[in-house]
Design a protein that fits this description.
With 142 residues, the protein is α+β, with helices and mostly antiparallel strands. Helices cover 32% and strands 16% of the residues. Strands 2-3-1-4 form a four-stranded antiparallel beta sheet, covered by helices on one side. It is flat and about 40 Å long.
């Protein structure tokens, strides 16, 4: 549920790149409440994705798309008008795994290569979409 937070082991992956797509969508009043109200009991997991992610990162393995889980992704595509189209555009620009950031509507994809991240970002910008890249650093970088 997110009420307990603990750091990952110090051998976590050193870096990866994220591309963020900021869709130009109308704001939703009380969006987080709306998203929570759209969830059902079956929307939640027992933490399997988190366990896989911690295990992989502790072994300096990849951060695969199947390891990322955001319960709001089960309902956000219907709650946000136009969000599904933004995801399709992101995929058309080369993003293999597209995920919802927090309660949205920002979308992201993770990549190991800076050049690939920059290419996807530039492709989105050429299509008139607001996008940016960010580098995530692990503990190896102080």
């Amino acid at each position: 549920r997110g009420e307990r937070v603990s750091p990952l082991v110090s051998r976590a992956r050193a870096e990866f790149w994220a591309v963020l797509l900021i869709p130009d969508l109308p704001s939703i009043p009380k969006k987080t409440q709306t998203l929570y109200n759209s969830l059902s009991e079956s929307s939640f997991t027992r933490g399997e994705a988190s366990r896989r992610m911690v295990e992989s990162l502790s072994e300096r393995g990849p951060l695969g798309p199947s390891m990322l889980f955001n319960v709001f992704e089960t309902v956000a595509w219907e709650v946000y008008p136009g969000l599904a189209e933004s995801r399709k555009l992101f995929q058309a620009c080369g993003a293999a795994g597209v995920h919802l950031a927090g309660s949205g509507p920002v979308l992201f994809t993770l990549l190991e290569e800076r050049g690939r991240a920059e290419a996807i970002c530039e492709s989105l910008r050429r299509r008139g979409v607001e996008a940016c890249t960010a580098q995530a650093l692990g503990r190896d970088h102080g």
